[in-house]
Design goal:
There is one protein chain. By secondary structure, this protein is of the alpha+beta class. The protein has a domain of about 110 residues: Dam replacing family, catalytic PD-(D/E)XK domain (PvuII Endonuclease, Chain A). The protein contains 2 helices and 9 strands. It has a 6-stranded mixed beta sheet. Strands 4-8-7 form a 3-stranded antiparallel beta sheet, with helices on one face. A hairpin with a 5-residue loop joins strand 2 and strand 3. The termini are close together.
Length: about 160
């Protein structure tokens, strides 16, 4: 069974930063480009809506990771405006979705090819950041993505 490694994030205090480091390291170690089977590489930190890219075919991948005990159809994300802009661009990303439990076991890991994510699937959140009142966060709804658009590397703990 695959686990995220909490030791690699010891230098971080914020849980969201710890999870980002652990999940990105796990993906980099374990995942290949589903488009051409090459190993993926990291983008520079803080590139909007892009965490990885393929060195061979140049596809971009955004990783979303969160703790859960079962598969959910909603993925929390960052800036609504940035996500919509990126989806409407010529370089819209594919999505990696990683779900883990409290023991950091990887429950589900899947890729959603970019042509399955539509702007209608991006839902603005009502909650905002107090010191950034014009910054609207969003969720990605996977409710209308067909099963053929959810390509699992790991499903219910099984590779």
């Amino acid at each position: 069974m695959n686990f995220l490694d909490p030791k690699i994030a010891n230098d971080y205090k914020s849980n969201s930063q710890r999870v980002r480091v652990m999940s990105e390291f796990w993906a980099w170690e374990n995942v290949f480009c589903p488009n051409c089977w090459e190993q993926i590489a990291h983008h520079i930190n803080n590139k909007p809506v892009a965490d990885f890219y393929c060195t061979k075919c140049s596809e971009d991948y955004e990783l979303k990771a969160w703790k859960t005990e079962s598969f959910t159809n909603t993925v929390m994300d960052g800036s609504y405006k940035t996500m919509i802009e990126r989806l409407n661009s010529s370089t819209n990303p594919n999505f990696f979705v990683l779900q883990y439990n409290k023991e950091y076991a990887v429950l589900n890991y899947l890729v959603i090819p970019k042509h399955f994510i539509r702007t209608e699937d991006i839902i603005p959140r009502k909650k905002w950041i107090p010191n950034r009142p014009n910054y609207i966060m969003c969720n990605i709804s996977m409710q209308w993505i067909p099963e053929s658009g959810k390509i699992f590397y790991v499903k219910n703990w099984e590779i």
